[in-house]
Amino acid sequence: MKTFTKFSWLIAFIICIVTKTASAQTKADVFNPKVPVTWLGIDFTQMKFLGVESEYKLKGEVLNSDFVGRYIPAWANLFITEPKTYDVAKAIHRDSVHFAFKVTEKVNNAITKNFFTEKRADLNTLKEKDIQELVKNYDFQGQKGIGMMFFVESMDKSAHSAGAWVTFINMNDKTVIFTVYKAGDSRGFGFRNYWAHSWYNILKDFRSDFSSYKNSFTKN
């Protein structure tokens, strides 16, 4: 009986340690180049586009339906077709990252809302707690470890800028490890390229700030 009790306790202890190790992800891990990260893509479910849809229609440009059916997939594909430009690994000081685009593709494909708004007050309303709530209800499709994604909040052509929350997630328990809002300047010819430059600049900006973030989370 004593042998069984000791053995049972040992097994329980090992399971506890393994479980804790598997689920534990810290801010320091996000900025540790040795810790793997999975790029999940760009979530547009919260995005607001400042402008009038009818005006874009008259110009022969984007309509609301084009966001989901045309441009969101095009922007997502840039991270595969132009990896040297949209280099997630470089932005987070990794040699490489895993890819799991299906995670954000699923939610983007289900979008039915109207992206357009004429009210500037509708832009940039999200807080960190809102990102945490979104992550808590996300389907990570069996992915584990640290995930990285953008939650796009706004696209403002008058300001030549788009904003997104750069977010790192513990996919084991659906919690936010670290998130920060970044704005990226837009430019270029054509609707796709004009806004794609924002995603590039957001990555570039995060890369520039990487060391300062790392220092703040790894101090003894």
Question: What would a concise description of this structure say?
Answer:
With 220 residues, this protein is of the alpha/beta class. The chain has helices spanning 2-23, 27-30, 53-58, 64-81, 88-91, 102-109, 128-136, 191-218, and strands at residues 37-43, 48-50, 98-99, 116-117, 146-156, 161-170, 175-185. 45% of the residues lie in helices and 21% in strands.
Model description:
- The chain is an alpha/beta fold and 220 residues long.
- The chain is built from eight helices and seven strands.
- The chain has helices at 2-23, 27-30, 53-58, 64-81, 88-91, 102-109, 128-136, 191-218; strands at residues 37-43, 48-50, 98-99, 116-117, 146-156, 161-170, 175-185.
- Strands 1, 2, 3, 4, 5, 6 and 7 form a seven-stranded mixed beta sheet that branches.
- Residues 8-23 have low confidence and may be disordered.
